[in-house]
Design a protein that fits this description.
Farnesyl Diphosphate Synthase; mainly alpha; globular
Length: 278
């Protein structure tokens, strides 16, 4: 998704130096934030797995999830892992654009709040959307030093809806039994599968609609072929969302999560083609 956002705003491929630096930064940043999630949530995760782990079906739901809570790695090793990737992210950001640093520190702070709200409020889902949006927004600043604020607001809203409807709620659906056992306040637990499914469909419909407005952020003249490609990518998300709300089946939630995980790759491929054609 950071790659798609950067190409959309820039309209051409950056220099090899910037491209390599961006790739390292994105890898290091996401790895650090995910590690931070496990570090802060280790206690709750141990509670979750105490009664056994429900078999998962999504790409992130293997038996190896919660590695710190399962003592597959030590706390010291986990801290070293997080520290290495976080420091590498800071260094790379400094070389790209120091203005991105507040985005990184803000995302890290919000990730801590997100984990701490597990048993407090389902509004944590919104925070998840903000954190997931940080990477693509940072990518824009990496290639466009002074992007327009209305454009950033549009991109931010679209990213939040993709994360909430396509990933966060479906991922919580996969953990619904464990979350109920420990008193977690996720949307599937608090409101039930029916409401959660409806919220997912609403979010994904808005993702598809807003994706058709993203061409306004690019310096390229992106006409109806681009719009058609974006709509087709949106259907790739919407169809499993509709199946989920019809069946309320956890496997369909996992399927949606997987499709939402592939969605950025599809968008990056689409954007790359139109950049090359231009």
């Amino acid at each position: 998704m950071p790659g798609f956002a950067a190409l959309l705003w820039l309209g051409h491929f950056p220099s090899w130096y910037v491209l390599a630096l961006c790739l390292i930064t994105a890898l290091a940043g996401y790895t650090a934030i995910y590690a931070l999630n496990d570090l802060i949530g280790a206690k709750d995760d141990r509670e979750k797995i105490a009664g056994g782990i429900t078999p998962g079906y999504a790409v992130e739901a293997s038996a190896m999830r919660y590695p710190l809570a399962q003592d597959l790695i030590s706390m010291k090793g986990a801290l070293a892992w997080f520290g290495f990737w976080f420091v590498l992210t800071v260094v790379c950001i400094w070389l790209l654009n120091p203005l991105i640093l507040p985005i990184l520190f803000g995302a890290a702070a919000l990730e801590v709040i997100y984990v701490k709200l597990l048993k407090v409020s389902w509004w944590r889902t919104v925070i998840s959307g903000v954190v997931k949006s940080a990477g693509p927004l940072a990518a824009v600043f990496a290639v466009v030093p002074m992007p327009s604020w209305p454009g950033l607001a549009l991109l931010f809203t679209w990213l939040m809806l993709w994360e909430i409807g396509g990933q966060n709620i479906p991922a919580d659906w996969n953990d619904i039994e464990e979350d109920r056992r420990i008193g977690a306040r996720t949307i599937p637990v608090v409101f039930g599968p029916r409401v959660a499914g409806i919220l997912v469909v609403i979010a994904i419909v808005l993702v598809v609609v807003l994706s058709l407005t993203l061409r306004s952020l690019s310096p390229l003249s992106l006409g109806w072929p681009f719009q058609l490609a974006m709509f087709a990518a949106g259907m790739f998300l919407l169809l499993p969302a509709v199946r989920l709300v019809r069946t309320l089946d956890g496997r369909q939630a996992a399927r949606l999560f997987d499709h939402a995980s592939l969605y950025p790759l599809i968008l990056l491929a689409i954007m790359s083609v139109f950049v090359l054609l231009a």
